[in-house]
Amino acid sequence: MTLNIMAMNKPVSKSVVVRKKQQTDLVLDDDSVKTWIKQSNNVTNMMADYNVIQMRILVIVMEAMQEAINGNINHHNSAQLELFQNDIDRYGKITIAVPMKNFGVKSNHYAELRSALETFSKISVQFKVDSPYAGKNATKYTHLMDVTIPEKYQKSVVFNIDKDIAEKFLNVQGGFTKFLKEVVFALDSPYNIKFYYMCCSWLAKGGWSMKMEDLREWLCIGSKYKEFKDFNRRILKPTQENLEKNANCWFEYKPVFVDGEKQPRRIDFKIFRNAMTVEEEKYFNSHVQNMKTLMFTHFQIGDADFNKILPLLTLYNVEKATEKLMDLFIYLQEHADEIINKKEYLMKSLITYLDPRL
Questions:
Q1: pTM listed for this prediction
Q2: How far apart are CA 254 and CA 209, in angstroms?
Q3: Topology of the domain covering 17-273
Q4: Residue 205 CB contacts under 8 Å (≥ 6 apart), including other chains
């Protein structure tokens, strides 16, 4: 099977809907252990015919790279450089060692995990690259990483990743996805996990849309479920129900048909999420208050103007909004002589950044 990077379609709605969820099998209250993982959208949007265990394996690798990923998100390239300098083997590959117990598989299921690791290492991947020999937008075919599997459960699995593949994992120029590891490990279908990633990725936008052919390709279903009624019954409906029951965000969907056609041209997805926990509310309010204070202190932006921005802020974009605000401060300082109305420029720039309709 192959894996590829795919550009997703545009958002379809302005804001995410907050809704009280029904009783769930996965309890994530204020006292629950919550492990937030950030991964490049290169990983979120890629196509791969992984089973559930293999998708969890990739999550474990992403977790091991969090320091470097966060460094890139915060524009601190030193974290990435440290990873490349300190953990490179003699063949120039990044080395990541993960104890067997970290995969969430008990020792009596070691054989199943070993088999999944072996297959995981053999899956071919595709990346679009610019090559001095093959030209622009060429396709590079390679494998994701080498895996060294221990004979005993008590030891560690060793992943060796080519530097250019690691850079794809760490590249957040196209954005990143923030999701809960505990949710991924609670889901029991590759479709559930893929759609969960997509909900997390588009959460700040409130929804997304995909052409039917792109959706089928992304899910790696080949010729299965050709009739939409079968595709809906076997994939969309059970996945929607599973995420609503077991995840912190989920989707509802609407197939868009053209008159006379039996297959929809596209599917529009609307994202829903739980109300914020006490912990999340404190995190959100802290960022909002910080933004409000900075904007008033430096540009005398009061409540009336700030309230134009507040409805656009969510738990999932408030950190990015704060970073954008700091970038704008620096830009306005460097171009102080060129921009007459700095307050108006700041407001317009921030609203344009946060509002998907603009």
A1: 0.72
A2: 10
A3: Arc Repressor Mutant, subunit A (1.10.10)
A4: 11, 13, 14, 16, 271, 356
